[in-house]
Amino acid sequence: MRFRMPNFRMVYFACALAVALSSGVAQAQKFAIINMQQAVLSTNDGKKAAAVIDAKFAPVKADIEQLQKNITAKQTEFMQNRATLTPAAVTAAQAEIESLTTLLKRKQEDAQQDLQEDESKQLGAIVPKLQQVINSYATANQINLVVDTSASPNNLIYGDGSLNITGAIVAAYEKATAPPPAPSPAPAATTPKTPAAPKPAATPAK
Question: Of the residues 59, 68, 101, 119, which has the maximum number of CB atoms within 10 A of its CB?
Fold first, then answer.
């Protein structure tokens, strides 16, 4: 079982993302396309969330991979030694392999469900903020319709590269969500210098 972050399918992506803005019937329509999945994972917030999920599921992935190796090793051993095994030993070996295979399937299903839940929780929180950025960008650039090419099913047959606003949206998202600059430190207070005492008058020579 492979865990790859770009495989997430959140409820937000269940159907193609379309941002329809007000436009007259006679007005020329302007379209754009975006890969929402790529956009989410390309933001700094998305990268941080993906790293957290990867770290959490790394032990799970390693456990599943090890179980797969154990099953393969036992299957190989069984096939090599089957001719010399007693009927009881054959039955026992087959039962063990079947039990391990069932365990593997259950672990894979549980891990996949947990992974999807974590992705929806961690990455899904980014989508509403990204949606606001898309709306603002589309309004500013007089775009009437934005189609998500990462949605499944995807009915888009062709879209020229110039229509892809994924990079522009990610850049706009980072700008919109950037923390405000830290205030400049106040200048250090200066302590006034004490004026030097006047020198005593010189005594006239006798």
Answer: 119
